[in-house]
Amino acid sequence: MSVEGEGLEAGRRVLELTSPLALAGISIFFFTTYFSDFILVPAKSKAQVVRALEERGFQFEKRAEAYVNPAAHHNRNKSSTSSFRPMSPSTPPPATVGELQARTFALLKRREIVPRVDANLRLISCAGRRDNPSNFSTDEMGLQVVVTKSLIYQPRFLSLTLTENDPASLLLEKGLIADFDFDHVLLGKRDDVLVPIILDLETLPLEAPGIVCGIADRLAGRTDGAGLTSAIEMSYLSTARTGNVIVEETDLDHGK
Predict the structure, then answer these.
(1) For residues 256 and 196, is the Cβ–Cβ distance under 8 A?
(2) pLDDT at position 78, please?
(3) Rounded CA gap, 102 and 93, in Å?
(4) CA dihedral 88, 94, 95, 99 (to 10 degrees)
(5) CB 160 within 8 A of CB 146
(6) Which helix (H) or strand (E) element contains residue 243?
(7) Per the count of CB atoms within 10 A, which of 125, 161, 204, 235 is most buried?
(8) Which of 57, 60, 49, 74 shows the shortest CA–CA distance to 13?
(9) Distance, CA of 37 to CA of 5 (rounded, Å)
(10) pTM of this structure
């Protein structure tokens, strides 16, 4: 599901989107891209997800083929039941996002999952250009050169999201952009440096709900107990093995 979150900062948008699903016990994969947010949910939970988002004020816009807010296999453990089935907790589900946050970090602590940060891994968020139809072929060729060169250098971190309605969205290492004409090929700001905080989630079952929301509430929600003087701007990238919290380099010490 694609969600456009106009009027909300990225961190708050992650929290607004994931909290109703987490409280409903729905497991998700979450991707923040240059243009939109994408939520991957179990197919059988689609109706429940739609209802939860619409109750929060999101509406489906046919023109954009996305939800909008008008106000603004791999080494991961599977349960013995369907890997998409929400877990049946032995205790009642959390009643508030704050309670869910506390449970999330308690779970991470029990499983000895600690954030891994390499301050030398500096990223840039950018996207392919599609602003001039007459230059479409040139723009597409330029993007292919960027991706090919990036792969040749065997980057430590590279995220590429391709969708039907948006231009390609990338997270790539800042050191790579010197090898091509960034401003003519890509949209983005070369000086807005991001750093990933990586959580190894291999020991958690695929259907564990609430991880994204719990982390977003701690960083972007300014929940009591976080020890933060201000909310941290963040985005999120789910993979089969990890959860990647993407923060601005200047916020790194607060986000760890």
Answers:
(1) no
(2) 42
(3) 12
(4) 180
(5) no
(6) strand 242-248
(7) 235
(8) 57
(9) 8
(10) 0.79
Which of 253, 213, 208 shows the shortest CA–CA distance to 236? 213
Question: How far is residue 10's CA from residue 238's CA, in Å, rounded to a whole number?
Answer: 15
- Look up residue 62 and give its amino acid: K
Tokens read off for 126:
């950018």
- Residue 127 in 3-state DSSP? strand
Dist. CA 59–CA 67, nearest whole Å = 5
What letter represents residue 207's amino acid?
E
Are residues 185 and 139 in contact, defined by beta-carbon separation less than 8 angstroms?
A: yes
**In this structure, what token pair is assigned to residue 158?**
């590279």
CA atoms of 32 and 234, how far apart (whole Å): 9
Summarize pLDDT for 4-60 with one digit per residue, the tens: 654 457 778 888 889 999 998 889 999 999 888 899 988 888 888 888 888 888 776
Phi, psi values for residue 233, rounded to 5°: -75, 130
Determine contact, residues 122/195, Cβ cutoff 8 Å. Answer: yes
Query: CA-CA distances (angstroms) from residue 4 to 22, 37, 204, 234, 247?
Result: 19, 6, 29, 16, 20
